[in-house]
Each structure stands twice: as structure tokens, then as C-alpha cells.
Write a structure and sequence with these properties.
By secondary structure, the protein is an all-alpha fold. Among the domains are: 35 residues; 61 residues. 42% of the residues lie in helices and 3% in strands. The chain has a two-stranded antiparallel sheet. The longest helix is centred in the first third of the chain and has 19 residues. It is elongated, with a radius of gyration of 34 Å. The N and C termini lie far apart (78 Å). The relative contact order is 0.07.
């Protein structure tokens, strides 16, 4: 990570100054440039390719826990924390759920609207008696007891 920072900023600042500031030796920086990538870095690179493929295939819906489960199911031995770190470092994120938005109806539709009761008017609702059918109940005044019971 430190050497990558030096590599990215060596055109703006001298390498020796960057190494001194980051408390690494210039010899270590130059030696690291010629070294091949470690086995762990190669495994992470291969895993990152697979993470990107799964991410694209599943339409960016999986976060790191589900991504880890998918990779294990496909035969890749990895840790959930490794997958989370790879996704975080490479800005791979799951799509978040769309926020709920209230959609109101179009009140300028030209159709007949329900009549509003005047303020303070008592509502009359049908009260079903035993033997009444839903379509045949005559409107009666509702009882005024507890929970609609006399």
C-alpha cells in the first residue's frame, strides 16, 4: 500500500522525500518494484476477477455476505472478510433497495368523485343481522356500545 502510494505520486515528489515521509527505505521501494506479485496478491487478483463477474451476472444485488456464499458455492475457497475487503477497496457495492415513495392518484381525472360527508355528520353503515346476505343488508344505524356492540 505504501509503495503503491509512492508509485502514484513519484512524478509530483521525489522518491527519497516520499520514502522518508512514509518511513520506508528507498532501497525497499526500488527492490519491491522488481519483485513478482506474492501468492496472496495473485489469489486476491483471481478472486477479484470472479467477484466482478458474479457482481455483473447478478445485476449488482449481492453484498459481501451473499457474494461470499456464492463464491463458496462456485468452488472458491475464501473468507467473508476477504471478499468484503476486496469489494470495499475496489468500490464494488450492492444496489440498495429503492426508497418507498407515496404515489397519489390523479385527482384531475374527470370521473365522478365520492361525495364527502359534512363535518360532524353521523355515518350510517350497514349492520348485518343473522340470515342477511352481504348484498341484501339494509342500512341501519350502527349501535353505539363498546367496539360497536350494544
Amino acid at each position: 500500500m505504501t509503495f503503491r502510494f509512492i508509485e502514484e505520486h513519484k512524478d509530483r515528489w521525489p522518491v527519497r522525500l516520499l520514502c522518508e515521509t512514509l518511513e520506508v527505505s528507498p532501497a525497499g521501494y526500488y527492490a519491491g518494484r522488481g519483485r513478482p506479485r506474492s501468492a496472496q496478491e495473485q489469489r486476491h487478483d483471481a478472486l477479484l476477477v470472479e467477484v466482478r463477474a458474479v457482481h455483473a451476472e447478478l445485476k449488482a444485488r449481492y453484498g459481501s455476505p451473499r457474494m461470499h456464499a456464492e463464491l463458496v458455492a462456485r468452488g472458491h475457497a475464501c473468507c467473508v472478510n476477504t471478499v468484503a475487503k476486496l469489494m470495499r477497496d475496489n468500490d464494488i457495492r450492492a444496489k440498495t433497495a429503492r426508497k418507498f415513495r407515496v404515489r397519489t392518484t390523479d385527482s384531475d381525472h374527470g370521473l365522478q368523485q365520492l361525495r364527502q360527508l359534512p363535518a360532524g355528520a353521523a355515518r350510517v353503515r350497514p349492520v348485518l343481522q343473522p340470515g342477511d346476505h352481504l348484498g341484501q343488508a339494509a342500512p341501519r344505524a350502527a349501535p353505539q356500545g363498546l367496539h360497536g356492540r350494544p
